[in-house]
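Milestone 3.1: sequence recovery, worked example.
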């Protein structure tokens, strides 16, 4: 089906935002209406919540972390893992008492979970106090849906409506002042057999090249020091655009923008990770020397069962090229342990790949079946206990690798972006271009700045150091 790239500005809902502001000015329990937004799951969900907050701000809302004080409570949900789904239902159930004490409170849910029929059916049946439910494809219609929920009563549900459109101009209220998320595309075409994302976020659709570059420029000019480009598979960027551009070209164009900043991106798929992209990273001024490239399994049979569209050999070929061409490269990855039918011997192939590559860190998961995916129907003869033992084995191997990598950095000086305070008094936390955490004593005024830190001590995952100078 052809994708309709109607890049209309966010204007149709301006009237709804104004009407919502007028209604909520009367309904608010305090001086202004307050919203409590809780976000689950990936960075894309965080970016979506920032757009919802931008619209709410235009609707006259302030924000609170305390649901008890809110006039509007919204959960932005994730469908990737089963425990996240269970947690959301538990937390929604806890809102019943708030609704009883404050009947005017509007309670809503959005995000990936809402694009699953079994979820919305359960919500409708068991949680009648939920006023508003909308899916990932209806985010741009939030002001209209909210207005209907508030003024017409009853329950407003809108899911499963994907018009294949990228909507530009939605106001954004970013959570950070020096680190920001920048979505470049939405959806996924890969259909990995374990993954629910293509079913909840739809097919790939890229934002216009110039729209992304302009937003990046605006962020840099506003003082952002770290920008992370987001997509379910950023390496596929541009494939659906009439004016063809590759992700490598997009990175290269943003890198030309003057300023002192780090440019990151996630997530990459190995099947689309080109030498062109690696060359751009190697030659760039601002792109981080960190490549997050999920391999998921070291077994070719398991990779085929996962529908990952690459082999172990192809993955290692990409890694070898990246190591040879990007100085001080930091590699991270995702791994699934215990995919249906995976044997211990096949799991051992994953361990051997981890040893061969020498990752800085791994995001490791025991396979969790997702309703509606092909893998959920596959034979799975191994117990969770067995998979947990394999999982522990993998963690031990990676801890040893990470400890060795960190120990090798002792005595070196690294440039870091200071991110905030730690739990220890007078100690700050920061991150290198390679995405390695460095803690050091320093004044809170350094937060949001680049500084040089000399590494004095290594732990498994975190480095300790001393401030050399503020740049």
């Amino acid at each position: 089906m052809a994708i309709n790239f109607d890049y209309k500005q966010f204007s149709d809902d301006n009237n709804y935002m104004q009407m919502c502001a007028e209604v909520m000015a009367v309904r608010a329990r305090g001086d202004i209406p307050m919203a409590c937004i809780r976000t689950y799951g990936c960075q894309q969900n965080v970016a979506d919540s920032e757009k919802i907050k931008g619209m709410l701000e235009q609707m006259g809302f302030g924000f609170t972390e305390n649901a008890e004080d809110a006039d509007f409570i919204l959960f932005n949900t994730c469908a990737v893992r089963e425990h996240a789904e269970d947690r959301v239902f538990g937390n929604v159930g806890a809102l019943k008492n708030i609704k009883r004490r404050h009947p005017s409170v509007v309670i809503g849910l959005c995000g990936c979970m809402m694009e699953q029929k079994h979820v919305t059916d359960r919500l409708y049946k068991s949680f009648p106090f939920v006023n508003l439910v909308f899916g990932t494809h209806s985010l741009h219609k939030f002001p209209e849906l909210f207005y209907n929920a508030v003024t017409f009563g009853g329950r407003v549900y809108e899911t499963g409506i994907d018009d294949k459109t990228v909507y530009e101009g939605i106001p954004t209220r970013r959570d950070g002042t020096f680190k920001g998320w920048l979505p470049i595309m939405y959806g996924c075409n890969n259909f990995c057999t374990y993954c629910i994302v293509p079913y909840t976020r739809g097919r790939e659709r890229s934002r216009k090249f110039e729209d992304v570059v302009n937003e990046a420029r605006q962020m840099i000019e506003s003082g952002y020091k770290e920008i992370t480009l987001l997509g379910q598979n950023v390496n596929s960027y541009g494939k659906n655009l009439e004016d063809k551009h590759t992700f490598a070209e997009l990175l290269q164009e943003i890198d030309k923008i003057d300023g002192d900043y780090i440019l990151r991106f996630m997530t990459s798929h190995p099947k689309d990770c080109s030498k062109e992209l690696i060359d751009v990273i190697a030659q760039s001024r601002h792109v981080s020397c960190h490549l997050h490239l999920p391999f998921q399994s070291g077994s070719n049979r398991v990779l085929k069962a996962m529908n990952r569209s690459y082999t172990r050999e192809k993955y290692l070929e990409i890694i070898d090229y990246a190591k040879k061409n990007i100085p001080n490269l930091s590699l991270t990855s995702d791994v699934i342990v215990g995919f249906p039918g995976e044997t211990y011997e096949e799991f051992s192939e994953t361990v051997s790949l981890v040893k061969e590559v020498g990752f800085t860190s791994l995001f490791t998961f025991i396979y969790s079946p997702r309703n509606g995916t092909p893998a959920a129907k596959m034979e799975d003869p191994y117990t969770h206990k067995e998979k947990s033992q394999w999982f522990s084995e993998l963690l031990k191997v990676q801890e040893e690798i990470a400890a060795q990598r960190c120990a090798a950095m002792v005595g070196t000086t690294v440039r870091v972006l200071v991110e905030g305070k730690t739990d220890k008094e007078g100690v700050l936390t920061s991150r290198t271009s390679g995405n390695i955490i460095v803690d050091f004593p320093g004044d809170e005024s350094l937060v949001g700045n680049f500084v040089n830190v000399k590494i004095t001590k290594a732990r498994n995952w975190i480095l300790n150091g001393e401030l050399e100078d503020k740049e």
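Residues 14-158 form a domain with the Rossmann fold fold (CATH 3.40.50.12160). The mean pLDDT is 93.
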